[in-house]
Amino acid sequence: MTPPPTRPHIARQRLRSIPGRKDGAARREHGARPNPRRDRGAATAETVVAMPLLLVLILLVVQFAVWAHAVHLAQATAAEALSAARVDGATAADGRARAEAVRAQIGPHALGDASITITRTADTVTVQIHGTAPRVLPAPFLHLPVRARAAGPVERFHPHPPP
């Protein structure tokens, strides 16, 4: 049997001749370093798999930020509507008008399908806003609800009795 040909780039590998082969072919033993030529193109294949996953992960982070921003906008709108509706002599319509003005100011697309419910009783005012956050990822199953609630007492003027 002829020894396997010596190649400078794999001279350090432990090679063992393959039984039954007459052309001097050799194989690596377990634990030997891999041949760099066999791994040619592996980085490209790994990148093709990893990059879309990385981009989806980045878009999920951005989607969470957009959802958190929409929640903040709904809470701010509810607080503004509450402050307008709880004033002495105001009505629920005044609170709704203020909420619509705030929504027009921040933009109608920041909170999609928004419904504003204002309930005013003799003692309290409650504002509820429900909607959905805009989508960054075009996934049909992605529905991010936004809910905000603000409540407070109705302001009343109580004059001091004369001394």
Overview of the molecule:
The protein is of the alpha+beta class. The chain has a domain at 46-153. It has two helices and five strands. It has helices at residues 42-85, 92-106; strands at 15-17, 26-28, 112-120, 124-132, 145-153. The strands form two sheets. Strands 3-4-5 form a three-stranded antiparallel β-sheet, covered by helices on one side. A hairpin with an 8-residue loop joins strand 1 and strand 2. Helix 1 runs antiparallel to helix 2. The longest helix has 44 residues, at 42-85. It starts with 14 loop residues before the first strand and ends in a 10-residue tail after the last strand.
Please describe the structure with a list of short key phrases separated by commas or semicolons.
single chain, 163 residues, alpha+beta, 3-stranded antiparallel sheet, two-stranded antiparallel ribbon, 36% helix, 20% strand
